[in-house]
Every structure is written in structure tokens, then in C-alpha cells.
Amino acid sequence: MITARAAATFDPVGRSVASARAFVRDTLQGWGFTDVVDDAVVLTSELVTNAVVHAGTAADVACMRTDTGVRVEVGDRYPEREVPLQSAGVQFGSPDREGGRGLLLCAALASRWGVEYTATNKQVWFQLDLPDRPAGTRSAGPALPVGALPVTDARVRVAVIQIDSLGGISSWNEDAQDLFGFSPEQVTGKQLTDFAAWPHTPGTSTGIVEALQLSRWEGSYGIRGADGRVIPVYASHLRVRDADGDPSTVCLLVRDHERAVLQTPSRAPASDRHTASERGSATDAFEVFIGSPAPDDLDGLLQRTVERARDMLDGDSAYLLLATDDETELEVRASTGLPSSRQRFARVPVEAGSGRYGSARMPAVHEDLSAVPGAVPLLSNTGMRSVVTVPLKVEGRLTGSLGVAAEAPGRYSNEEALRLQFAADRIALAVESARLTELERLRRGSLSFLVEASDLLAGTLDRDQTLALMAQMTVPTLATWCAVYTIADPASEPELSYVLHEDEDRIDGLKALLAKVDPPEPVTTPGAQVWTAPAHAAHAAALRTSLRSLGLGDSVRPATGPGTALATASAVGGETVVLPLVARNRVIGMLTLGKPTDEHFRQEILELAEDLSRRAALALDNARLYSERTAISQSLQRSLLPPELPDVPGVEVEVIYRAAGEGNEVGGDFYDLFPIRDGAYGFAIGDVCGTGPEAAAVTGLARHALRLLAREGFGGPAVLERLNAAILDEGARSRFLTLLYGELWPQEDGSATLKIVCAGHPLPLRLRQTGDVEAAAEPQPLLGVMDDLELYEQTVSLAPGDVLLCVTDGVTERREGTRMLGDDGLVDVLTTCTGLTAGAVATRVLRAVERFAAQPASDDMAILAMRVPEPQLEPQTT
């Protein structure tokens, strides 16, 4: 009778064989069938290989739990491919032939097996019966003397944590509170990922989220306690389903050195179960875990390697180092039983010498490290006394180093070194293959990251936005937190300009901490430099806070609580590096990247950050130059416009100006209104041909010349004729200029008199109280073309209620496809403005121009409206 079933489908690719093995192993371990796991994995591997490699189709794998054992079915979708049986009777060919080997193994290992055909697929199944054993016995080990038993604390604490289907903590027992310092109220509902220090690189292997989805999982990781320290633990995860059918995961955790309480004993393969020698048993143990992680799961492979190596030699700790690309340094990639500070991505040089790793290229045994201090820098101040190390080599090239250490001296001899070397030789090729796969994936990801970063940085010239982009691209992809310092000039001190943390609640505390620390020294040396000041300051602050909370410090308590200080110390207490931001041979700032407590940067991440810093520095410097240029340009542009308009007695005046183009305050259009003498005012509105500095130069010349000449007593025609001569004197820098210039005299009777000269400019329009609109002047030649101009002025009278509207061609030439607003369209708009103030008239005209087309205006616009208001009626008295 089938009591449980699990099924999965694997694509016809090579890595599916390993994935299928892992699926069967995890499923059967989750059911507690450890006695048949190895046989089931071997048979599944052969049958799935037959399906995905030889048949070239997807493989359907199903595991079924029965009352007496387990049944595994492997099907492919190539039914016409016959099982390689001989026609006369059921006999197999030679075991050395390629076909039929899986069926030969089925016959040898399975209790029952068979082949079934359907119209769409072929299915091979096998049944493995559980061995008879006394009730209540799952696995057993030999009796050991008391001195050989694992060492524990006075009381072993097993934390029981239940995780819901969304990854949130739903149950937290008393032992969990004792181990990690958090009460159930503090953690319930929060994600386990907020507390777990997972030892694997995100994105390159199984992470904690994936591990929680497996039916069963065992391994080591860390839990960040309430004091900010990472506590190494050994965990056993079991996925269960409650009465309502909702899945959850039960996690049992003990201190890592107490792992014997939870760890499932390894069992040798069936074929060698009764004949394995001492060295063979070690080899078999390695063969078991080599097939468990996926082929490209480097972190999982390394972590299993160090755990098996430690157990194989009965050590207290183990570690594995991988060589960097240039083979000059070794990088910590996996460890067990060591302080968390010695775990991920710490680096030591390979060659012998002070503070170096002197035994990487050859097997070595150190009976007592206290006699040779510094021989293995990774083990300094860890309490380890004896160690055996062996190299990982592929084709004679050093690719890494594997070591096992013990707290007691004299634990290891050459015999253990040979056993460990034999196991390392068996794993070296798999490690190197997975390492190269990871490097290739990292390089491809780095290229994509840099391309995207370059696009984002090139998309803005705003300094503040560039700083924000720099930080957001590094957190959390490259680092846990980031701070950007900027340097205004070589004589200035670095200034903290932007701070970002992956946890937004910690940004303020991090910013306050960095504000109290002297900024890093600006250096031009390329590459990342380690900066220890933030970690020291964070730990010092956490210590002071802890002493105050215990009443051992001064009576002045900090503004923040102990939890905030400890959280900041945990967030900043890891490795911190500084990369200079160098642009155009000048240091313009520093990019600071940090990790949480006891974590290091891997070399590939630092190289990627260095590439990013070069691009970010150039983008930041470009933003600075653009800001400076824009500030200078806007300052010059503002000088081309009148600072303010004078009040004209008896006349309402309104000006609206819009310069086309981003960052422009002034274009080729300009306007002016200024007093000439008592009772007389000059006004002008013009348009210089072209854009840019040349047009701006003519604009400045025209505006200042108009004021000067008018105040010298020249009339309108004489003013424009002299301005025309000045423009022509500019030679190649001269520009055509259309200009409407006039003089305004308010009258005592409430009207206003104007004398106007329109030199090539759109004609001014007069709106009467009756709603009639007419041109108020005649067109005359524009300026900057001919030497001799004969201009004349025309007199216009504005009665109370009349409006004079002057615009540049950016208004009349507003386009939408083939349509244009034109003079007639402007007249239609002005006709609707009867009775409006000058401000309302200018605003209505601008609104009509903006609504005429959906696209932004491509030309400058200036609107000048003057209106003589109606006299106010005196209130009647009775």
C-alpha cells in the first residue's frame, strides 16, 4: 500500500542526473529511509542517465513510500526504444557494455523490479525493502569509551524553530531563547533570513530559502544572536504538513560542536558495506557527498567536503581554501568548527614567510602549532594545536588546500595525511570544475552588471542622483552597506555625502556612527584598501552601551538604546574597504563598502567594485562639471534679463518668458521695460537668430544698448539705427535681430500714448474694449542685415480698457504636425480676453499656446501685455 508519493521531472541535460540523485536522496531521508538511500540513489542515477543521455528525453522520477519499503519509478518518453534483453530468456549482456547496466544493477540491488510500456513512455521501476531491525532503532554506532564521546556543555540545548510557508518564524522554544538571546515575542513573524548568516554566496548555490523548501536538509550555518555575534550552529530541517494541509519546516539547531546530537551517520555503499578497508571507508564517505550537491553547486560541495573531512579524521575543525586566479593567495571558502571571523573569503598569501600559509603545495602535519606560531595563520588564536593539511591539485596545478585541526597536540601523523590526501585527490577535479563554472557565471554577471551600471550613470548629470545611484548599485549586490565621501577640491577634507544600508532601519545609526569617525585618507593607489575605523568604533560603542546597561559605566546614557548600538555594531563590524574615486587624475571622493560582523569580501567582488568605482568617479565628475557649467551659464543668462520690472503709473504690465531647452533660463528671445526720464518708459521685445553663446552675446548687446541710447535722448528710429550699426560691427559674430521697440507715456486723462518701431518683428496687437483686434504698427526691416536703415516710429493711443499685446515668433509659430497657431490663431485667442487684466491676458495666451500641441515647445517664447485700466467709480454718498 502506498502511503506517500513525491514526483519530479528532469530536463534532458547532463546536470539532471545529479539533480535527480539529490531529489531521491532528500525525499528518502525526509521519510527516514536512510538504510536504502544509497542503493536508491545508485539505481536512480543509472536509470536517469539512460533516459536523459541515451534516450535523449525528459525523465519522470517518482518516489513512493510503502508499508515495507520504497518504490522508485523512472520513465522516459521514448517507448519504441527496447530494453536491451536477449530474445531467448531474460539475460543481460556483459556488464562492460553501455546498454543494460542500469537493469543489471536493478537485478543485483533491488528486491523487485520491472519494465512497463505505455503508448507514450517507457517506465522502469524498482522496489527496495527495509531491512528487519528492532523497533525504535534507526541507526547505531559502536560502543565507545567515555573519553571518546563528543564534548557538550553542562546541558545540551536543542533549539526548535518552526518556519511557515512564507519563511516566517511561527514557533521559538525556550532553548532557542537561551542559545540566541531573543524571546519568542521578538522573533515571531520575522523572516529566518533576518537572523541566519548563510555560508554560501547568494545566487551561486543553494540558499536558506531553497533549503527550507527541501523535504529534509542538514548542514551548518550561523545565527546572529541578540548581542550581534554570529553563533555557528548545526541544523536539521524537516518539511512537514499540518492537519489543514499547509506546509511548514521544523528546524532543530544545536551548537556546531554538538552536531553529533543531530547529524545523520554516513553509511557506506552496499557493495562495500562488509569489505571496506579503513582507507576505502574514507573514500566511500567522499563518494557519498560528491554526488549530493549539484555539479555547479560549489559552496554546497565545499561545505560538505570540510564537514566530511573533519568527521573522517575525528577533528575539531576543518577548512578549505581555494587559490585565486593568479595563485598568489588562498581564499577561505568553507570551514566548520572555527570562529565565524575565520570563515568566508579571508585571504592569506601562499608562499612561506611571516603571516603566510607555508604548507599549501605539499601535505604537512603540525603536531603542535604552539611550537611553530604563524605556520597556519587561519588557526591563530582558535585553540587548535595540531593540524594536517593537504593540497588540492589538478594536473599538477595548485587549486586549493584542505586542512583538519584538533584542539589536542599530536593528534595526526603521516597516516592521516595520506588518508586526507587520497580523499582530496578524489574531490579536486570536481571542485575545480565547479569553481570554473562559478567564475564564468560571476564574470558574465559582472559584465551585465557593469553594462547596466554604465547606462544608469550615463543617464543623469545630477550630482545627488549620481551619488544615490552609486550606493544603490552596490547595496546589496556587492556589499551590505555603502558610504560615499566627496572632496570638493584638493585642499578640502572628505565630506560624508551619502549613506545606504540594505536594512533601512539601520541607515540613521550608520550615518551617526560614520559622522563620528575620521574619514579615510584619500589615496590615488588603485584597488581596495581595508579601513578598520568603522568596525572599531562600532564595537567600542556597543561595549560602552553594554557597560552602561549593566551600571558599570558613567551615568550619562546614550540617546539610543542598547539594541540600536548592538545592531549598528553587527551591521558595521565586518570587513570595510575603501576605493578611491579618481577622475581626470584627481581624487574626487571615496567609495566605502562594508560587510556585517565577521564577513569578508571575495576577490572577484572587490575587482568588480573597482571597475564600478572608475565608472562612478567619471560620472560624478561629469555631474560636477555640468553643475558648474550650468551655474555659470545660468548666472550669465540671468544678467541678460532685467532684474525686475518698474511700476508704470496708470498702466498694467505683465511679462511671461519661457526659454526652450533643459537648464536654460534665457534663449535668443529677450524683453525689457525701463524708465527713460520722468513720465516716459521704454519697452522692447526681440528675437536673436540662432542659439548658444553667440546669440546670447547679441542679446546682451541689444538690451544694454537700448537702455543707454534711450537715456541719452535718442528717439526710437535713432536708437535702432545705432543698434544696427553696433551689431554689424561684430562681423562674423553678428546675428540677425527682430526687435519691437517703443516708448510709453501715461496720460493724465487715464489713457496712454505709445511710439513704436517694429523692425522685422511680429506686429503688436491692440485689443479694444469692444473686442476688436488690430495691428498696432507696420512692419519694417530687421536689424543686422543692411548698413543704412531708414526707420520710422508710429504713434498708438491706448484708451482705458485697451490692451497692447507683444509676442515673439515662438508664440505664433507653435506647431502641431502641419498645423501652426499663426497670427490668425493669436488674434482669435486675444479676442476672448476682453475685460481681463494684463496678467490674465498673458496667462490665457500662454495656456492657448501650450494646449495647441502635446509636445514641449521647441522655441523660446516671450509675451508682453500692457493694459490701461478703466477708472474706478467713486462710491455715491447719501
TrEMBL record:
Keyword annotations: Hydrolase
Record-linked PROSITE patterns: PAS
GO process terms (BP): regulation of DNA-templated transcription
CDD domains: HATPase_RsbW-like (cd16936), PAS (cd00130)
Entry GO MF terms: phosphatase activity
Pfam families xref list: GAF, GAF_3, HATPase_c_2, PAS, SpoIIE
Residues of the PAS domain: 160-192
Xref: InterPro entries: Bact_Sigma-Reg (IPR052016), GAF (IPR003018), GAF-like_dom_sf (IPR029016), HATPase_C_sf (IPR036890), HATPase_dom (IPR003594), PAS (IPR000014), PAS-like_dom_sf (IPR035965), PAS_fold (IPR013767)
Key word RNA-binding present: no
SUPFAM superfamilies: GAF domain-like, PP2C-like, PYP-like sensor domain (PAS domain)
Entry keyword annotation includes Kinase: no
NCBIfam families: sensory_box (TIGR00229)
UniProt protein name: SpoIIE family protein phosphatase
